Amino acid sequence: MKFGLMVSEGPYTHQASDSAYQFAKAALDKGHEIQRVFFYHDGVNNATRLTEPPQDDRHIVNRWSALAAEHQVDLVVCVAAALRRGIKDEVLAPGFRISGLGQLVDSAIKADRVVVFGD
Amino acid sequence: MATDPSRIKKVMFVNRKAPYGTIYALESLEVVLITATFDQDVSLVFLDDGVYELLKGQDTKGIGIKNHSKTYRALDGYDVEKLYVERESLEARGLSEDQLLVDVEVLSSAEMGRLMAEQDVVLSF
Questions:
Q1: Taking the complete model, does pTM exceed 0.90, yes or no?
Q2: Which of A15, A74, B49, B55 is 20 to 30 A removed from A33 (C-alpha atoms)?
Q3: What are the tens digits of pLDDT across the range B88-120?
Q4: ipTM metric
Q5: Is A78 annotated in the active site?
Q6: Do B9 and A6 touch (CB under 8 A)?
Q7: Under an 8 A CB cutoff, do A105 and B27 touch?
Q8: B115 — phi, psi (to 5°)?
């Protein structure tokens, strides 16, 4: 099955990004496709390479980057939501790209299921 | 199961949060306006504190935040005409349909559940 995911909350404060990552990984392991992960609202804060968690904690941003590198998952950050929160191309972690809300609608149209991870 | 990308999909936006204390209502509205340009079958649902988004007479001067409630009246111009409000959410907050700033269809939560089950995509905010 082809899944589109939306992540609506920032990292560490909320479990949305962790849950979405675990879901994506489990789906890929079972042979499904993750068509795109769309980061919206405070979810755009998952995309900054300035993130530096303590060493004994998971690195949420790097984990997404690794998933993108390994499985060619399209990680899209909403431009309007990103600019509001100071997320720009120059701070993007590898594997993320900034684009418009049309990419979320595109997932709604093309994916078999869209799963929202939020509050 | 393959999805035919040319088929019009039923896309529902579920608005659950009050209009100002968080950004969800405003950013949901932004997605709705974009989705309207993709010629899909769009509907909006308002439940829980989301019913406050449609309340008439919103005045945000005191909190220094832009009043986005007028946008709901403009949805008509984007051919977004299916607006549903959950009856139980209105009643729990002592609100009635005539206090809302747009025409809506009021549904019970059971009816709302059936409508949600018919959708291809449900995005919640």
A1: yes
A2: A15
A3: 999 999 999 999 999 999 999 999 999 999 999
A4: 0.92
A5: yes
A6: no
A7: no
A8: -65, -40
